[in-house]
Design brief:
By secondary structure, the protein is an alpha/beta fold. It folds into two domains: 200 residues, Alpha-Beta Plaits (2-Layer Sandwich); 235 residues, TIM Barrel (Alpha-Beta Barrel), CATH 3.20.20. 42% of the residues lie in helices and 21% in strands. The chain contains 16 helices and 18 strands. Strand 8, helix 6 and strand 9 form a beta-alpha-beta unit. Helix 2 crosses helix 6, helix 6 crosses helix 7 and helix 7 crosses helix 8. The radius of gyration is 25 Å and the shape is globular. It starts with a helix and ends with a helix.
Length: 463
């Protein structure tokens, strides 16, 4: 169970005390010299890493209180999917781009600014040179402007885009981690607006951050003690006039904040490393449900589990699934893994290998929320997809829009040509359902047939 050990829990590495200095990357700017230990350094760029940047933030915020309340800024940058170039131009193009980007950003820094690499495609800049949002924004725009120029890795030319979140400390701010996470969360939000966007953390974001930190702290216990629980939403077959399957969904009833939306706590689970234990818990829940189904004499019934790309792409995921199948009586059961369309833009070669191994275990692969913008036809032809779940946006007002009906029918025809099953999500009205029913051979999942309910209630609807 190396996957459980390596993915689920943070590793704590003993410090190796090898001190050195980061000097100017280019001659025409001055970056603050930082004494680093080997475990505080990003090996590719020789810049400070994430943990050390947070430590430096704590020190700066503490010292700024003694230095006439000098404001500290944290600028968080994420570049957009550099690994996509690897498939065409070579396996290490993204690394070479990261190095060039580190030089490019460093060339823009002001005196005593500190640049760190804080993630695979992420950089952060700590500065005390920006006293207003306007001055910080001007600097961030210089970064975006620099990206309009191409990067060259002989003989090829590359254009890169980014999203930037900025947090400025306040008079009462003394927590470096909070300032760092505020900028990161702001960057995540601005990513949804498109490429090369900039945004600032607002006061409401800080309260959101405090809640996020509390949820992250409470998440492990919530998984263990059942505050995070599971519900089932049925998948109805018009042809067989019964439920043929169900999607397993997680819910969190927090003692302070009440019901936490899955969109919120799944993201927190991914960021904190707890998405692995949550996935294991879901597989165990599915195993229990299959036992109940057999006891009730219900056969040929499938259960679908959402699999995060973080879990799916982990090196030991297949080994873990094999262990769970063998030890939790999942062999021979109709188990499906739902993956999001966005997963398809990751390392395709590795993804094909993982999905083929899953199919070899007779586990179905359902592409969730199909039609939201990622999956081209080549992915559907290349990958061993067993079912498409058409996003609910295609179903909304289906009865009123002829063009929407034509598009919907085209997706159905394409799926059938590729021998891929279709499940329609979000069916909530009889009129929408009538159109789907006329096409035939499609499962529907939506509130018209089944709300997400706990296992005992769902079993009663099947009997």
């Amino acid at each position: 169970m190396l996957f459980l050990k390596n993915l689920f829990y943070p590793l704590h590495i003993n410090s190796i005390f090898v001190s050195f200095f980061i000097f100017s990357l280019l001659g025409h700017y001055k970056m603050e010299k930082v004494s680093l230990q080997a475990t505080q350094t990003d090996l590719l760029t020789n810049l400070p890493n994430r943990s050390y940047m947070i430590e430096l933030l704590e020190k700066k915020l503490s010292s700024s209180k003694k230095e006439d309340q000098k404001r500290t800024s944290l600028i968080f940058i994420e570049f957009d999917d550099l690994s996509r170039f690897n498939e065409t131009f070579g396996f290490d193009i993204d690394d070479k781009l990261i190095v060039q980007l580190s030089h490019k950003i460093a060339s823009l820094l002001e005196t005593n600014d500190i640049l760190a690499r804080v993630g695979n495609e992420q950089f952060a800049i700590m500065s005390q040179n920006f006293h207003t949002e306007e001055s910080a924004e001007i600097f961030a725009k210089r970064i975006i402007a620099a990206l309009y120029e191409p990067f060259f890795i002989d003989p090829n030319m590359f254009y890169v885009s980014a999203s930037i979140g900025i947090s400025l400390s306040s008079a009462d701010e003394n927590n470096g981690y909070r300032l760092f996470k505020a900028a990161e969360n702001t960057m995540r939000k601005v990513q949804k607006d498109g490429k090369n966007h900039i945004a600032f953390t607002r006061q409401k974001d800080k309260s959101y951050l405090e809640k996020s930190i509390r949820l992250m702290e409470d998440l492990p216990a919530a998984i263990e003690n059942g505050d995070i629980y599971f519900v089932y939403q049925g998948q109805y077959s018009h042809d067989k006039h019964r439920f043929e399957g169900a999607e397993l969904l997680s819910r969190w009833e927090h003692p302070k904040y009440g019901e936490i939306s899955p969109e919120t706590f799944i993201l927190i689970a991914e960021q904190s490393g707890m998405i692995g234990p949550l996935t294991i818990k879901a597989l165990i829940e599915a195993s229990k449900m299959f036992v109940h189904l057999e006891a009730a004499g219900i056969k040929d019934f499938s259960i679908s589990i959402n699999i995060s790309s973080v879990v799916l792409m982990a090196s030991d995921f297949i080994e873990t699934v094999q262990f769970m199948r063998s030890n939790y009586n999942l062999v021979g059961k109709k188990l499906n893994f739902e993956i999001m369309e966005e997963t398809l833009i990751q390392n395709t070669d590795h993804l094909v290998h993982v999905l083929e191994k899953i199919r070899e275990m007779d586990i179905g692969i359902e592409l969730d929320d199909y039609g939201t913008g990622y999956a081209s036809l080549k992915y559907l032809a290349l990958l061993p997809i067993s079912a498409l779940k058409i996003d609910k946006s295609y179903v909304r007002d289906l009865n009123r829009d002829i063009k929407r009906q034509a598009l919907f029918q085209a997706i159905i025809d394409m799926s059938r040509a590729l021998d891929i099953e279709v499940i329609v999500e979000g069916v909530e009205s009889v009129l929408e359902d009538d159109i789907v029913k006329k096409i035939g051979g499609i499962k529907v999942q939506g509130y018209l047939y089944s709300e997400p309910v706990k296992s005992d209630i769902f079993l009663n609807t099947l009997e």
